[in-house]
Design brief:
Number of domains: 2
Distance between the termini: 60 Å
CATH architecture of the largest domain: Orthogonal Bundle
CATH class of the largest domain: Mainly Alpha
Number of strands: 0
Radius of gyration: 20 Å
Strand content: under 5%
Number of helices: 7
Keywords: DNA-binding
Shape: elongated
GO cellular component, one term: cytosol
Organism: Emergencia timonensis
GO molecular function: DNA binding; DNA-binding transcription factor activity
Helix content: 55-70%
InterPro entries: Cro/C1-type_HTH, Lambda_DNA-bd_dom_sf, TransReg_Diox_bact_type
């Protein structure tokens, strides 16, 4: 039985560029990414320069750590989760200093945020 689809040639150099672009967007070093994938930083460099490919397992881990789809890594399909990633990072940056606030301060900030969001809706 013949398949009706054409297998596209994987461009390892472009794949590596997309991985590097997302890693840098997330402010991850090669060493940090390597640690999360349990590989060497040299291996990450080899992937980013298109000198080596990745296994299915490592591809899956890359999608999780970099918060992108496998389609984006493999073919550059633009259904990446960059906007979601950026939104999550902004929320984390907002929430981090709030950990030092007491209940009264948090209640005050809650009112300020609600007022601000309502004001944005009116514009």
């Amino acid at each position: 039985m013949k398949c009706d689809y054409e297998l596209k040639h994987l461009d390892y150099i472009e794949m590596g560029r997309r991985i590097r672009k997302q890693r840098e967007f997330l402010n991850l070093t090669r060493e940090e990414l390597a640690g999360q994938l349990e590989v060497s930083s040299k291996f990450i460099a080899d992937i980013e320069y298109g000198e080596k490919g990745v296994s299915i397992k490592k591809l899956y881990l890359l999608t999780q750590v970099l918060d992108v789809s496998a389609d984006y890594i493999l073919a550059g399909e633009e259904n990446v989760l960059v906007e979601g990633t950026e939104k999550r990072r902004i929320k984390e940056n907002i929430l981090e200093p709030l950990k030092q606030c007491n209940v009264q301060q948090l209640r005050c900030l809650e009112q300020i945020v609600r007022f601000y969001v309502e004001a944005l809706k009116e514009k």
